[in-house]
Amino acid sequence: MTDSDSMFGGLIPLPPIGVDIACSMYTANAPLQINILGALTLDLKGGFNTTVRTSGADGVILEVQSFRVETDTSPSTPSSGALIAFSKSNATSAPPSVLQATASGLEMLLHLPLTVEVIDKATGEVHALLATDSTKHATLRAADVQQFPPVNQLYTLQEPVQLYPAGDSAATGTEPAGVWEAADFIVNQSA
User: Fold this and answer.
1) pLDDT in tens, the chain (191 residues)
2) Are 155 and 109 within 8 A, CB to CB?
3) What are phi and psi of 126, to 5 degrees?
4) Using CB atoms within 10 A of its CB, is residue 1 exposed (0-12), middle (13-18) or buried (19+)?
5) Are 82 and 117 in contact (CB under 8 A)?
6) Omega before 149 cis (within 30°)?
7) How are the residues of the chain apportioned to helix, strand and coil, as percentages rounded to the nearest 5?
């Protein structure tokens, strides 16, 4: 096995450039504060797709193609309540996502500019459309990565993420309309 075939002295195999990797993810009890709804605790499920852009002995750079996790606030009543969906926005301010070596081992950083929609289930109307600041993003971090693509890997929201009405930001003097406080996702490669 050569350096081009393995990462960091053979710790894990390198994915080839251009390969698409689809992953599923789930978290329970993720706190979210949205001004129009108040404090919520969410179970979110969904996933993301990445494409390997570079792969070498010093790390892997990935492009996030898509990201979406959602929850149904009242799953037993299909005609009432709301869907809350987090998805990757088209903003280009986030740095590339990486799998890299650190002093404590391998880590994955998934950088995501986000849009959050609160959708009325009965009408399909969007009651709130929030987004990360144009100069900020959410970061999901996986420490102690033992293999990639992931199998039962913990990805943690690195820090709380402030959410603004879509099109507004801290730079425009707008106050946040919500904050995604924390999340611990279990992530697996999708078949």
Assistant:
1) 334 445 555 567 778 899 999 999 999 999 999 998 999 999 999 999 999 999 877 789 999 999 999 999 988 888 888 999 999 998 777 889 999 988 878 899 999 999 999 999 999 999 999 999 888 899 999 999 988 899 999 999 999 999 999 888 777 878 999 999 999 999 999 97
2) no
3) -85, 115
4) exposed
5) no
6) yes
7) 0, 60, 40
- Per the CB < 8 A criterion, the answer to whether 7 and 52 are in contact is no
Q: What CA–CA distances, in Å, run from 159 to 2, 4, 139?
A: 37, 34, 7
Residues in the chain: 191
- 107, exposed or middle or buried, with CB in 10 Å at 0-12, 13-18, 19+? middle
Task: Work out the number of other CB atoms within 10 angstroms of the CB of residue 9.
Answer: 9
Residue-wise DSSP of 111-152? EE-EEEEEEETTT--EEEEEEE-TT--EEEEE-S--SSS-SS
Q: Find where tokens 């970061």 sit.
A: 139
The DSSP call for residue 174 is P
Nearest 5°: the CA angle 35, 41, 42 is: 105
SS3 for 184?
strand
